Amino acid sequence: MTPAARVQAAIEILDSIITAARSQGAPADRLLAEWSRGHRFAGSKDRRAIRELVYGAIRACGPVPRSGRAAMLRLAETDSQLAELFDGSNYGPPAIGEGETPARGGVAPEWLEARLAASDIAGEEADALLGRAPLDLRVNTLKTDIDALELPLEGERIAAPGGLRLPSGTQVEQWDAYQTGLVEVQDGGSQLACLAVGAQPGETVIDLCAGAGGKTIALAADMQNSGTLIAADTDRGRLSRLAPRSQRAGTMIAETLLLDPGREMEKLAPWQGKADAVLVDAPCSGTGTWRRGPEARWRLSDQELTRLTDLQQRLITLAAGLVKPGGRLIYVTCSLLDEEGSRQIEQFLAAHKEFTAATPDLPVGEQRGAGIRLTPFQHGTDGFFIACLCRA
């Protein structure tokens, strides 16, 4: 493909991504994969270049662009060589018309930028949300330790114990160490969230929003496969991916619970008031993960944020009933909005006098209300809010 043809292909893919964002359709990665399957003539270099153009344009736009062409014109404002490829050649984009305007820049739609700024995420802190995330690994202590591990590429140690950082795009899935379960792909912030649980051998621990189980298998390693570990979620598809991951990692999970939304306690009743620790990795806006999926900021609305905060409050309350006297509830979101973090904990503590907040014992992080916040700019991790609540 010619460079101009790559630009036109990226514009067409961006059109699909913009439509999907407005209608809550497929994510950008899936749409890119579908395009590649339908365009077998595109070589690996073409696909890589088109992907770079697509994500570059997404990051360059704040609000949802009116079209893929407008998004690409926004990126071309910062790259004169890219602007020259709008030349009207065969398979390339038409020339830039007089008065044709690019999409608007920024970090996010205006209403969302204002919410972030109200949570002290502005300037460099906000810009860092759209950077490129590195690839972090967690060394599986059930099978090896960080000093004994040998990898094809040496990783940089990070704040999380047993954590290593590699360049973005490293194909670790092809390594023997990954295939045999010596390492797992897990962001350093996510690893620190697991560390905040303080899971110990012999305890009863519930991962209430387990998803595909990334944090669950990390907790199993902390527990040294000794004790009772419950992985629960309402998403059958995501929860089904836990078993093969657990087998590869050599972890033993006592029970996997598929919960019915709104009727979760029916299956959780046997654990009422019995858990040493309950982890609530709550569904959230994902503002802390935009480095990995930057088009997600186009999908969020004020109404959706309200729905998420209501759900978070219900999940914290549900989890509180599972914690035994002297136990702990760990609340985590990959969001940097206070309404999903510190404000949620303020509301919970006001309504549940039997719980008090304890600052998570983590090697990095800044105090935010009754919890700890991690940001891409300050700590090099995804954005997280982490709180630990202790029951009397």
Explain the overall architecture.
This protein has 392 residues and is α/β, with parallel strands linked by helices. It has 3 domains: 104 residues; 51 residues, Alpha-Beta Plaits (2-Layer Sandwich); 204 residues, Vaccinia Virus protein VP39 (Rossmann fold, 3-Layer(aba) Sandwich). The chain contains 16 helices and 13 strands. The strands form 2 sheets. Strands 5, 6, 7, 8, 9, 10, 11, 12 and 13 form a 9-stranded mixed beta sheet that branches. Helix 14 links the parallel strand 8 and strand 9. The longest helix is centred in the first third of the chain and has 21 residues. The N and C termini lie far apart (66 Å). The model has no long low-confidence stretch (mean pLDDT 95).
Please, how many domains?
A: 3
Gross CATH architecture of the largest domain: 3-Layer(aba) Sandwich
Q: What is the CATH top level name of the largest domain? A: Alpha Beta
CATH topology of the largest domain: Rossmann fold
Instruction: Quote the beta fraction.
Output: 15-25%
Helix content: 25-40%
Order of helices and strands: HHHHHHHEEEHEHEHEHHEHEHEHEEEHE
Q: Which regions are unreliable across 5 or more consecutive residues at pLDDT < 50?
A: none
Could you give a short account of the major beta sheet? 9 strands, mixed
- Structural shape: globular
Radius of gyration: 22 Å
The count of β-strands is 13
Structural class, please?
A: alpha/beta
Termini gap: 66 Å
CATH superfamily of the largest domain: Vaccinia Virus protein VP39
How many helices? The count is 16
Give the averaged pLDDT, no decimals.
95
What's the SSE blueprint?
Elements: H1 3-23, H2 28-38, H3 44-60, H4 68-76, H5 80-83, H6 110-118, H7 124-127, E1 135-139, E2 156-157, E3 163-166, H8 176-179, E4 183-185, H9 188-197, E5 204-207, H10 214-222, E6 228-233, H11 236-240, H12 242-249, E7 255-258, H13 265-268, E8 275-281, H14 302-320, E9 323-333, H15 342-351, E10 355-358, E11 366-368, E12 371-374, H16 376-379, E13 384-391
